[in-house]
Amino acid sequence: MSEEFRPDILGIFCRWCSYSAADLAGVSRMKMPPTTKVVRVMCSSRADPVFALGALLIGADGVLVAGCAPGDCHYKTGNYQTRRRYALVEKIFDTLGLDNRRLKLVWIPASEGAKVKRVVTAMTESLQEAGPNPTRAEMFI
Amino acid sequence: MAKESSVLIYGTNLAGYRAAYALCKDGHKVILLNRGRYVDEIKYQALAQLPLDFCWICGHMPQRLFKALGCLTDYYNAELLSVEGEAGNFKVKFKKKDQYVNNFACIECDKCVDVCPVEVDGRKAIVVVPEAGWENIYVVDEENCTKCGKCEEVCPTACIKVERPEETVEADVGAIVIACEFEDPTDEDLADFGAGRSPAVVRNADVAGRSLLTNFVKDSVRLPSGKVPATFAVIVTPHFNRPGVEYENYNLSVTAAYRAAKIKELMPEADVAVFLSDYRGFGKGHYRQYLKAREAGVDFVRAESVEVAPAEGVAVVKYKRGGESESREAELVVLVTGQKAPATMEKITAVTGVEPDGRGFCRLREFSSTETEVPGVFCVGECSGVKGNPETVWEGCALLPEVSEYLGEKNFKPAPPPELRNVNGEVPNVGVFICSCHGTFAERMDLDGLREDVAVLAGVGRAEVVEGCCTPPTMKATAERIKASGVNRVVLAVCTPLQKLLKYRKTVMMGGLSPLLLRLVSLREDVVDVHDDPEKMRTKALALIRSAAEAAKRASQEPLETDAFTSRALVVGGGLAGLEAAQGIAAGGFEVALVERNDHLGGNAAGLDEGQRAYLAELVKRLEENERVKVYKSASPRSAEGYAGNYAVKLDTAEGEVVERFGVVILATGAGDYKPEGFLYGDDGRVMTQRELAEKLAAGEEVTGGVVMVQCVGSRTPERPYCSRVCCAQALENALALRERGAEVTVLYRDMVTYGAEEDLYRSAQEAGVQFRRFDEDAYPTVEAGEKGLAVKLADGETLAAEAVVLSVGVVPERENNEALSAAFGLRLDADGFFDSDANAYPFEEAIKRLTKPFELATNGIYAAGLAHSPRPFEGVLLTARDAAGRAMVMLGKKKMPPPNAVFVAGVKDSLCMGCGVCVDVCPYGARVIDARKKVATVRPFLCDSCGTCVAACPNDASFLRDFTGIQSIAALDAVLA
């Protein structure tokens, strides 16, 4: 795999905490790899697993779902729903033998711009290790 | 002469901001005199009032919004010069000097910093304020600035002016609100604790400031040498400082406990000790925080005196405990400091005539929460005494019912929204407007190339590069271009929607389109400022715009729903809190119904002094005469249907069942006294409660001989882990009265929770010869009846002889009643059975969000006041009641309530809904119900906070979120990766 490989990551960020944090990172001018394209949802619980799986099917190298820290959800319990859902998706990944590195659920509080940078950088690196998403080439629907 | 409607607010403490917010919302214009150089300079003090490392108040105090609305005029570097006239018609004169950099017009391009030729110690003469987390605020360093004017020339928005003359301004206002900030103690004031003499001694506010943006991390306590300390001492300095230097506020004890627990949480192996004289945490959750810290292994040292001797590499804390001198080494000493009287007091007195109290704070009129002895001049926040959050915030709203009588006709009304074009039925035609941020983005990436890429996207009818979208001229220009292009969907590639969302929406609405047809891309935060490679930036920007355009294409215009709002309030409980709240709301011109379960108003008046009784009697009289107030005696609410803004409440009254409609509900049902068990209470007439003693003393009964008081009976116990707050002051007052009659008094206590003015009471009791003895929480004294008198046995075996034993019993909530009301109205109870509130919820993060932006929240419309909320003294009850009344007045002024998120509410496609009710179960706001007739789910838009949980849960895809529909979201996701 070439050093040049830049993974294509879809970010699904909740509007209140994670997107605020991404905003803050931007305001603070924190440099990070240009791999993650963020789509905003009101709450991470709106991040239907179909979104994530669909993105991987059409060739995203990774999906990063981010929500408020547990106990701090703007919608009180939304992120718990997300957590439950994604625990299930992870199991499905294991069962199907898919690479768990491609789907990540993280909590990013609104004040932690630096964490956005950290998470994006780390995910980029781990996906560089994992290489391009083989789904497109190997799956038939 | 007609009364003026505007209000002048002098100073920018938290309560002042909150007052400005409430006044603006209520329809009064506000002049805000900011004594600082820039908008948030002094607001950061809030951190010193909060026991946490998180504040975000700047983000939630939408001062920019007020400015945009036109109800707030702010002046910087301002000083009040003179006040003439009387309440209702003041003529004020003040001086001001505009900001060098107008941060409302600044676009944060950094060009001024680049061209500044001055450089002192690696800093330019124009700099970004480091402590502002929310946005980049530029200030000019006056000392080093050479006024060369280069920054002025290069600024693309002309927001810099290096010459800002001082000007004098005059204004007519109806009332004046003093909201000056508090003074931090200086290093000199804290000399006994080694402040400023060693890097091993820091203030808690510094630690909080350092960890502000990262939450708590080890770095915030790292020593300059790079070492992370292993031993910590947290000292509550006002407990040990010389008298009169600094005063303890509401939050200091709990702040110390919080800090210690945080350190322990992060470094379980660290040795952490908290030094204080007493644990004075009486707010909601404060005692629980103490228990939590202790459980984490924090050592609480209750010392008589503490000194810190800074030494090389380590500080030595010398302290006295139980008369013994001890010492302890700490690598880092964290000082939790108090508040000093405002330095502006002398000036305030000279200008307004408001006199200071004995400690140098503004003196308030008796029984008022905010008004001074000069009619029409008010004082809020830490200017009128030591305060902490939430008291400051309560005062901001409590001002409203008190100030209203001096103000004339409301003089502010937001402008009606612009006319919107109906685009239904048109073929989607997306216009993409790429902001160049006054040309600054073009220097970092190829905007024209991006525009060309965007122009050929499917469905994009127009792509343009615009100058900006956030200052009035650029907003107007962009709106005109939207109109001229004839597009019916808009994508704005701009910057942070967090700060400027409302401006973007306004721009699109000025362009004649519904904000539902708008999609935003954060060009600056997601692309320009965080990446370097222009080519990759262009690719990423294109992907984001493509995605936004796909979503915009599928956007549909739907009417903005509003909900009818019943402008009528229900107050449950006819005690002090209920009466005061009802009176405040009625005085504001709104209808009120007051429900009292007894056959008389006034509640439990036992234990009040003469002045308080007179106040209460007057209140009852005024209320019964007020025709806006409908009083139901011997009545109680049985059940409630509906939601905030629209409640139908069934009342059981003497005349049978009545159903009434209300928009706002205030629960002021009070609380009871704890009925003590043990201590021979009830078996022996010589054992009594503080209240019974007070009644005896008032009746002139003789109490002589030895009296022993036992504190914390039924409070701060495992069953009731909260402080009842009122009993310490009650005990001290009674002890002083007994001493006057010559009785010997011994007070057995765990912690004397005396703060603020009560500290003086404690001191005079000590001086009057009252004996104080501490006992441990697991070693309560016991009482036995002896032959001659009572014998109080202490844990150490000693026995005190007493003629009478007085128990300080706590306040207990009426659990059953509260639970019933909680179920009926949906206002949560806290763990102790009192009504919960936003105001002092734990953790504070959530509280702050709500405190500072409280009016639009879905759960609002129901407030708890007085003892039903938490134990508090007479003045505290009045404060919470007025706060509730103030909040209610802001709400009641509205005839229609827009949904809290204006446009983004959930909806249901009736044809697909099978009425399974999954969405009803998952909705955290109770915003969904099954329509009994149609058997489908329906949404109450006023309660919906647009999270979308229901959408993801719906098995049949019948639920949707406006602007975030599945079709839109999937298309957006596909496009981002295409």
Topology at a glance:
The complex is a heterodimer of chains A (141) and B (978).
Chain A: E1 9-14, H1 18-27, E2 36-41, H2 49-57, E3 62-67, H3 78-96, E4 103-107, H4 113-130, H5 135-138
Parallel strand pairs in A: 1-2, 1-3, 3-4
Chain B: E1 7-10, H1 14-26, E2 30-33, H2 46-49, H3 57-60, H4 63-69, E3 72-75, E4 79-86, E5 89-97, H5 111-115, E6 119-120, E7 123-124, E8 126-128, E9 138-140, H6 150-154, E10 166-173, E11 175-178, E12 201-203, H7 204-211, E13 231-236, H8 252-266, E14 271-276, H9 286-295, E15 299-302, E16 305-310, E17 315-321, E18 324-330, E19 332-336, H10 345-352, E20 377-379, H11 391-403, E21 430-435, H12 447-455, E22 460-466, H13 472-485, E23 489-494, H14 497-510, E24 518-522, H15 523-528, H16 534-553, E25 563-564, E26 568-572, H17 576-587, E27 591-595, H18 610-625, E28 629-632, E29 636-643, E30 646-653, E31 656-662, E32 664-667, E33 672-673, E34 687-689, H19 690-698, E35 706-713, H20 726-740, E36 744-749, H21 758-767, E37 771-774, E38 782-785, E39 790-793, E40 799-802, E41 804-809, E42 811-812, H22 815-825, H23 844-852, E43 862-864, H24 874-892, E44 896-897, E45 906-908, H25 918-922, E46 928-930, E47 937-939, H26 949-953, E48 959-961, H27 966-977
Parallel strand pairs in B: 1-2, 1-11, 2-3, 11-20, 12-19, 13-14, 13-19, 14-15, 21-22, 21-23, 23-24, 26-27, 26-32, 27-28, 32-43, 34-41, 35-36, 35-41, 36-37
Antiparallel strand pairs in B: 4-5, 5-10, 6-7, 8-9, 16-17, 17-18, 25-44, 29-30, 30-31, 33-42, 38-39, 39-40, 45-48, 46-47
